[in-house]
Amino acid sequence: DVKVTQSSRYLVKRTGEKVFLECVQDMDHENMFWYRQDPGLGLRLIYFSYDVKMKEKGDIPEGYSVSREKKERFSLILESASTNQTSMYLCASSFPGTETGELFFGEGSRLTVL
Amino acid sequence: GQNIDQPTEMTATEGAIVQINCTYQTSGFNGLFWYQQHAGEAPTFLSYNVLDGLEEKGRFSSFLSRSKGYSYLLLKELQMKDSASYLCAVKDSNYQLIWGAGTKLIIKP
Predict the structure, then answer these.
(1) What is the pLDDT of residues B48-74, one digit of tens each?
(2) SS (H, E, C) chain A
(3) Could you tell me if A108 lies within 8 Å of chain B, comparing CB atoms?
(4) Do the chains contact at B42 and A42, CB–CB below 8 Å?
(5) Shortest CB distance from B45 goes to which of A40, A102, A106?
(6) Using the beta-carbon criterion (under 8 Å), do A42 and B41 form an inter-chain contact?
(7) CB B82 within 8 A of CB B17
(8) Strand partners, B86
(9) Burial bucket for residue A104 (CB in 10 Å: 0-12, 13-18, 19+)
(10) Interchain CB distance below 8 Å, B33 and A41
(11) How confident is the model at residue A1 (pLDDT cuts 50, 70, 90)?
(12) Which residues in chain A are contacts of B48 at CB distance < 8 A?
């Protein structure tokens, strides 16, 4: 079974703090994604990566950065957390060779910024 | 703009059938996905449609009409464990996923 593991299920941070969200997948997937999920909205793509050292901006990259030093690990960084970044963050991975390119998600990291 | 519409919430009875609709307006189309997400858990893949018609997978079926920009997810013989949110997503011309806000399905005994 594909497993996507996010390092923290729940985090509480203060405004201005630097926040790291870690994601690791164990199925050698090339593609990795960071989404945020907010009530009443569809998933919104923050950043994605199709290869090591590679990153692309999604729809809402402002206030975020990412790092992909190893194939299995994709980190999301909030340089200076703000209250409007309180959200559920979902990491996902996929293998580009499949017909569907279905996503495998981690269980999410619920971040509260006070 | 790109838009995916699905009902916010639906209620159905255990053992019954429910149909969750999804309409979309996107720049191009390269497939439509349904995902299931139980409260507090990761979304999991249910189905993928790229051609018109019905795809059946056990108790779940998914239908697509590209000309109408419309899909539905049909759940038969509902069980309590089917209580979850159901997310519709369309892959656009750039192969990026556009997501609906999800439909929360409540199953009552």
Answers:
(1) 999 999 999 999 999 999 999 999 999
(2) CCCEEECCCEEEECCCCCEEECEEECCCCCEEEEEEECCCCCCEEEEEECCCCCCEECCCCCCCEEEEEECCEEEEEECCCCHHHCEEEEEEEECCCCCCCCCEECCCEEEEEC
(3) yes
(4) no
(5) A102
(6) no
(7) no
(8) B36, B103
(9) buried
(10) no
(11) low
(12) 99-100, 102
Between CA B39 and CA B17, with CA B87 as vertex, the angle to 5 degrees is 85
In the predicted model, what is the mean pLDDT of chain A? 93
User: Could you tell me if B90 lies within 8 Å of chain A, comparing CB atoms?
Assistant: no
Give whole-number Cα distances, A108 to A67, A111, B49, B84, B106, in Å.
18, 9, 26, 16, 22
Q: Scanning every residue of chain A, which has its alpha carbon at the shortest distance from the alpha carbon of B36?
A: A105
For B17-56, write each residue's pLDDT tens digit: 999 999 999 999 999 999 999 998 999 999 999 999 999 9
**A–B: how many Cβ contacts below 8 A?**
46
Q: Binning pLDDT at 50, 70 and 90, where does residue A98 land?
A: low
pLDDT digits (tens, 9 = 90+) for A27-82: 889 999 999 999 989 899 999 999 998 899 999 999 999 999 999 999 999 999 99
Cα distance from A9 to chain B (closest Cα, Å)? 10
Is the Cβ of A88 closer than 8 Å to some Cβ of chain B? Answer: no
